[in-house]
Amino acid sequence: MDPYLRQERRKTNAAFLSWLLVLVPSLLALLLWLSLQHAVEIALSISSVSTWSWDAIKTFAFIGFGLLWLAGVFLMQNMLYRSAVRGMLISRIMQMSALLLGLLACSQAIRLLLGAAEISIRSVLPVALEAVLAAILYALCRYFHARRIADHATKDNKPWARRT
Known about the structure:
This protein is mostly helical. Helices cover 84% and strands 0% of the residues. It contains 5 helices and no strands. Helix 1 runs antiparallel to helix 3 (54-86), helix 2 packs parallel to helix 4 and helix 3 (54-86) runs antiparallel to helix 4 (89-114).
């Protein structure tokens, strides 16, 4: 097959996969957006901000978080596309999911500290599970990255040039 055609086919497949797989991190980012919106509402209720300003602050926070989410989705799609072209798609999607799960766990922990719910095993367990899952995904991402580097290092070395 022609190398140019092979490269174009790879780019086409990368674009399709990046748009398909961006759904996972964008849904996690949507959950983060809603969690942060709820944290803003809780912070307003315990702060000394005038109740007349609450609607404006909540509206600006909603719009601001929404714009950040939208920009994040396009940034994540671009990062996934570039990673798919380089053959590092699985590692990148794990890294993004780990980051978003970690941020989601932090935002829910902040909500608990602000008094959104009574601190009990039932309210802390989901936050802890999200943090553990984020750590596991990040560890897997680092493992795949190290394995890829090791594979490239062994391919680049010439067997006759090795010294034992």
